[in-house]
Amino acid sequence: MPFVEIKPGIYWIGVNDHTTDLFEGLWPIDEEGVSYNSYLVKDQKIAIVDLAKSLKVDEFLSQVEELVDFSHIDYIVLNHLEPDHSGVLNVLGKLSPQATILCSSLAREMVSSFYGIRERVKVVEEGEEISLGEKSLKFFLTPMVHWPETMMTYEVDSRILFSCDAFGGYGALRGAIFDDECSDLDFYKKESLRYYVNIVAKFSPMVLKAIDKLSSLSIDSVAPSHGLIWRENPSLVIDWYRQWAEYAESGGEKAITLVYGSMYGHTEAMMDAVARGVAESGVRVEVFDVRRTNPSYILPSLWVNKGIIVGAPTYEAGLFPLVVPLLDLATRKGVKNKKALFFGSYGWSGGGRREWEKMVSPLNWEIVDSLEFKGRAYPEVLAQGRALGRSFGKVISEL
Ligand code: FEO
């Protein structure tokens, strides 16, 4: 994409990624894509704020070259060293050896370990301001949003916050780069939530600290390193992030996620009965089949909804194996403070429920009830499941 002037003298020079299948080697983005937003600030001095993954390097460099001479770049600001924001440094560092890298003290070590660069690296402190002429860059340390070295950069004259991972999301840019140009904000909200839960959620307390720290700033635009630039309504995306971060403690909204797997259809038949009962309670339920849905897409629902129902048959005296990686990721991401229900079929001995209880015990999930049944879900057992769904729905609605 060609560069875009987002304010006088400030340019988006990002790269759209439509070819990476797994972000961080883990999270599917083959359909949605992602953008690596980089920004160039041109004044008496010239700074580039955040870079891009080492992908489409020619496109990135030609955007820079159209705006400035590489030998005139004074600063490269690295808010975060994860290679999706710094990969191009390998090349840009050679083209602009005179540029000084500005980063946090922890980032300095990473600049060395990832890129072998030790010269012309200046550590900036909390609140420090560096003048570019009329414009100036002010730095705020925001550790663990998303790595320990992370900071944000605020351009004082235009009141733009370059927030890096914070307030970003999956989803390549589709022509529109500003919120007010976008005709499908729901897509970016959904993909921002998925990004939040996949990448940042574990550090939710630090997200809240960062938002508190920024609360005294007058912010005209939020320019993250992934996704849309928020200039019409910058508080919208900040409020989304605040709300999602608060779910870490509150457990989320009065709604239910039902995740299930099934081998021969008996647990699936029970899923239909339980979901029917939940629907009768009037509580919203989202249903996912672990056999067909990547955990990346299930985790956001687990994060947002207070009620969780897991349906899984017993497999070799344990839990249906495809449920295990999902629960493991839920543990790693800190999906806590939920109310939970379990159901599942078994052939000759149970064991699924036992392993499930063991897996969720570190997560502070309150187990409200469970139903393991032998073999097929006969009508009387399905009626039990439906009643269970109804009563669990009632528990959630009365929170
Ligand atoms: Fe978008 Fe933590 O990298």
Report what the structure shows:
The chain is of the alpha/beta class. It has two domains: about 5-250, 4-Layer Sandwich (Metallo-beta-lactamase, Chain A); about 250-395, Flavodoxin domain (Rossmann fold). Helices cover about 35% and strands about 25% of the residues. It has twelve helices and 23 strands. It has a seven-stranded mixed β-sheet. Strands 12-13-14-15-16 form a five-stranded mixed β-sheet, covered by helices on one side. Strands 18-17-19-22-23 form a five-stranded parallel β-sheet, sandwiched between helices. Helix 1 (about 55-65) links the parallel strand 8 and strand 9. Helix 5 packs across helix 7 (about 235-250), helix 6 packs antiparallel against helix 7 (about 235-250) and helix 9 (about 295-305) packs across helix 10. The longest helix is centred in the C-terminal third of the chain and has 19 residues, at about 380-395. It is elongated. The mean pLDDT is about 95. MU-OXO-diiron binds near residues 82 and 146. MU-OXO-diiron (FEO) binds next to helix 2.
